[in-house]
Amino acid sequence: MKERVKVVFDRKGTAKKTGVGKVELQVYLSWTLRKWITVGTSTVEDLETDAQSRQIQSRLSIMSKSSMQ
Description:
three-stranded antiparallel sheet
């Protein structure tokens, strides 16, 4: 089974042009329904540290817990 919540970077491909892309949480609500929640912006170089930030990790854990219900 797929993960219900995961961190996605630059799903629209804007980082190539501008150097900055959105960091989003992708939440699977059902087999065919997904929702993206923007939690910040990052550059390609800073993505790893930004993805491990307290803000993103807290939102990830909240969404993971709520999607399990």
